Amino acid sequence: MYKTHADHQITFFDFNQSCGMQLDMNNRWVLAAARIPWAKLEEKYAEMFPSKTGCPAKPLRMALGSLILQKHLGLSDRKLVAAIAENPYYQYFIGLDAFQKECPFRAPSLVSFRKRLDCEFIMKANELYLSKAGATQEHQQEAAQGQDKGAAEENVGTAILDATCSPSNIKYPQDFELLNTAREKLEQIIDRMQKESRPFVKPRTYKRIARKEYLALAKSKKRTAKKIRRVIRKQLGYVRRDLGYIERYLAAGCTLTDCEKTLLETIRKLYEQQKYMFDNKTHRVADRIVSISQPYIRPIVRGKTKSPVEFGAKYDVSIDEKGHARLEKIQFDPYNESTIFQDAIERYKKRTGHYPERVLVDQIYRTRENRAYCKEHGIRISGPRLGRPSKAEKATITKTEYQDNADRIEVERFFSREKRSSGGGLIMTKLDVTTLGSIALSVLVANILATPASNFFVVYFAEPEEASTTAHYFAIQDAA
């Protein structure tokens, strides 16, 4: 059940006036709250609650505002609850009417917020925010001025496209460590099932010997390939034996919990992958599991000096000439970035009504197919053209490439801001749905807090249709 709160949005002047508390209208959270279209977002949020009975859910502003605060501040659930209880600006940002000594929700509620506000909803929220921030302002002005379609179809603007990976908070995967963890999980299931079926004799799992063999390699300063292969072979045998014991228990009538069923399915797949790689003496397998607790995570080869391989979700981000970022594609399985190039440009045209004048991308996007697509639509793609340039073109090409490379740095700046200040550097969530939503939220937070507060000021005015009421409304204007 959900009750709409759009008609009860508090204003800057109404917050805690009974206590005489007055907030600073130039505070970054006051300005950020004014820039976010809460009412439009709440309309989409209310659609998630078709039932008209039950306990009403928390307001959208409280749920989304709390997650935005958590992303930017980098706080845990419990620390965020404590911070909201101490800071009046945080309470105003999440939509409270007045300052109160306690947070309006408890830490476990944040888990429900993250599950409910998934990646799809956050991407819609980001698009609504950019629309209000002026992402399509030029196109709207052209339509209002009555310009002809021929002028509107002229290529204008710049689109920048690049991909990155947000690593999840998992331990660096080692094959023998994954098998050891799987063995320990299976032993816990066997112990629990044996207690429920007393007539059965507890099977021998050799857990002490297996633990000793694992530690001998884990603590070894020099791990040779021969030692690693020997330990993997033994751990595979322990896992195979434990899986057989569990099958016997299940055949005898024992049952598994829902969590144990999911865990057992993951371990079986892990065993098959590790057995295949051991028998074929390879380190590659399709849909390789690198974490038992998060089996959806895949290794993403990025080729960076610091971390050649990252373990998390890969996604593409596009940035327009206004510096507004959008999430074009996100998934856990690795993919070739060039495949989403044309779709991203078509979405740019759908938003603005015209193709961009130039597209700034790195080499992996500049395939022959994408080059032909740009040539067909009159778009200049960054980078040198195919073939050897003539002597007369060398000077011009050098200046153009230098300018394109200088402008393409904007997407690298966005990635740095998103990962350092917006929570995209290390994803702490555990579920696949919340992980994707967390990355999408980091893009939204980077957009919200990208513009310095000094570039905007807040104007308060009464709506003409409701001049008789005391309600006031926000308007963000550029100080320049």
Decide which structural class fits the backbone.
alpha/beta
Principal-axes shape call? globular
Unreliable residue stretches:
146-152, 452-480
Radius of gyration: 28 Å
Series of secondary-structure elements, N-terminal to C-terminal: HHHHHHHHHEHHHHEEEHEHEHHEE
Total of helices? 17
Cα distance spanning the termini: 44 Å
Give the biggest beta sheet. Answer: 6 strands, mixed
Average pLDDT taken over every residue:
85
Residue share in helix? 40-55%
Number of strands: 8
The fraction of residues in strands falls at 5-15%
Summarize the structure in words:
Helix 2 packs antiparallel against helix 7 (119-133), helix 7 (119-133) packs parallel to helix 17 (432-448) and helix 11 runs antiparallel to helix 12. This protein starts with 27 loop residues before the first helix and ends with a strand. The chain is 49% helix and 10% strand. It has helices spanning 28-35, 38-46, 60-73, 77-86, 88-93, 109-116, 119-133, 137-144, 149-152, 175-196, 207-218, 225-251, 258-280, 341-352, 368-376, 391-421, 432-448, and strands spanning 158-167, 298-301, 309-319, 325-331, 358-360, 380-381, 456-461, 473-478. It is an alpha/beta fold.
